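Example record for the data management plan.
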Amino acid sequence: MNCKQKFTRSGRGHPCLVCGRVKDSDCSVSTEMVLCHNNTSHKKGDQVKGWAFTGVSSDGRCGVFVPHKPLSKPQKGETQFFDYSPNHRVKRYYREGKKVFCPQHKEGDKWGNGAGSDPWPLYGQDKVSGAKTVVEFEGEKCKNIAAVCGLNAISQPGHLWTKDHLRFRRYEALAAAGTERLVIVADNDAHGIKRANASAASATQAGLQVRLLLAEQVWPGIPAGGSIDDAPGSPEQRAAVLKEAANQQEIWKAPESVAELEEDDEVPGWSYTALIKRILQAITEDDLDTDMSLKATLMIDFRVPTGQVEADLLRHQMLLESAGEKKKTPPKSLNLDQVEGMDFLIDGHVPANDQTLLFGKAGTGKTTAAVGYARSVLFGEGFLDQPHPARRGSVLFIASDSGPGPLKSVLQSAGIIDDPVFKNGPEKRFHLWASDRNQGMSSWVADLRGCMRLLEFIKDEGIDLVIIDSCKSVTAPSAINYADNKQVGALMTYFKEVICAHTTVVWLTLDGTQGPDANSGAKAWKEVPSMVHRLEYDIDPKTKEVAKDYRRWVVQKNRLGRCREFYFEEDSGDIKLRANQQVFPNCTAAIVEVLMACFRDGQEEVSRGQIVASVDATGKTVDNYLSKVVKAKHPEICRRNRGKYKLAPRLQEALKSVRVDREEVLETPFSLTVLFQLPVKFPMGTPGVLSSSLGKTSGSHRMLVAAMDLVQVLPDRVNSPM
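Corresponding structural encoding:
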């Protein structure tokens, strides 16, 4: 990295060149590099708006991008088509920097979206017909690169790989054409290994001799998720290394633990845990007959209800899903410095990567409120009393209660249903699951099968928010008892540990009969989520009757801050605050400036009263944001003692070397500088923009505090390996 390049923080007039961020200064831009706060999940080499992803900073907060230099590979931002047959193809395109795959089939002379009814062949099957040895990769791109390397390469249609019987037929056709040996290369991640093992089992069953290779073992040092496309060397060198590894690899055999049961096998002697694991295998293989047979055996032999079986299946699957993320030897005690805090997806309402419960009587506006949450994420808007915009993302709405019709009516009333985010196409970011006979979809069910399907969809589509309407409707068809605390607790824990590692979840339900502040069903519906919202009718003080034109919103539980309540009303499918309700604008940046100014003056700890006096905001607003920022995932402020606050240690260390010159800002050896202007009274401006003038009149004196070396302020972001 060129140490002389100068960075500009994102903000008004200076959008991030990768994500377009202007609302705060979280991104940094120079002519040779962009440190983007919003894009950290790409593979190395992915291109976004002409910038190539090179890695993530060591703190995980920023993606590091450099100007894209065209290579021999296809341009990442271009739409590509992969032809499987004259009637089948896959369209690959990019939506907001993320890859999207769409299977298409021929309808007369036109291409239609979807797999269609005719069977799909292997990708490249016509090119390898008769070849004795064939190499299988995950993805069309890797298959094409391998073909350039001189290999007889194929890949599976990704949208159909979970269908065991279809995968088996494709391998039968490959064997019938003369192929004897199949080398399967697993991508360098858990998902790739899972897919490769499933393919190996089907290919072996079809009579092929299979060797399974892990990409990371063939080409050591490739990134997570990588394969031959990330391998070093020329095409000929990559192929040579692969062939040598295949020659040394033993023939793949199915592990004994997943061997198929014969019809006359007896299972009564199996242990409870062994039966649970075997049922998990049957569910994974979509073997409904074996699944139900073993469940019946388990319930009869061990005298357990079906709900407990489902709960135990969720617990065991949760351990399997999270096993790869845990260290082999757990520590005796957790290191608090490595424990991450929590941030909001929707400020003040929905914590990111966690669960939220929204409940109330029928007619209190739960569905409209949920659509408001979806709208905030889809369009990057604030919500009700929290105007700070949410981070834009994709939404999955599971309407198992009301169905798609009423939800569509709400979207139509709100006047947003014609936006491209709701339409099939490259800009689609709103997804709907509900029962619809015409389209062949049934209601989603919260059993293990449904949870695994949900997890796969979240990963494939990059879903940022899942809204489930309602708790009772998704558990009723399953074995989970809606009112059983143990069973619901297992479901909620699975969501917390597995699903919420990839997305954020909002549950909707009715209120209960145990009092005005109690949700219906098991207590776990309210105990596990980090936030609980209650919507209720209010008594009009004038008429002494239930108010028809407005409702009360009560934040009943909030692990990230204070509880509160306010009044709202519905307006043509939209939801808005009533008049004279308090709004909490984001004043985090102004609070940080106050603490920085005091620290430079030798005052490390600052009282709450001094902060309120120095920030142009109400005491309640300051308290609200102080409560949030000290619990953030990467906090900039720490609470010291009762009513005392200070800068986070990393910011303090950065400020210790700052040199002050009232006449000019001195260049540091690394001229990557950010100018901080410190006012006496801080106005509440754009969140994250650390600059303002002294006083409130134009032309007032401005005090310049020394340029801060960006390498010192953000050492992990700037000094991350390229």
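Summary line stored alongside the record: The longest strand covers residues 98-107.
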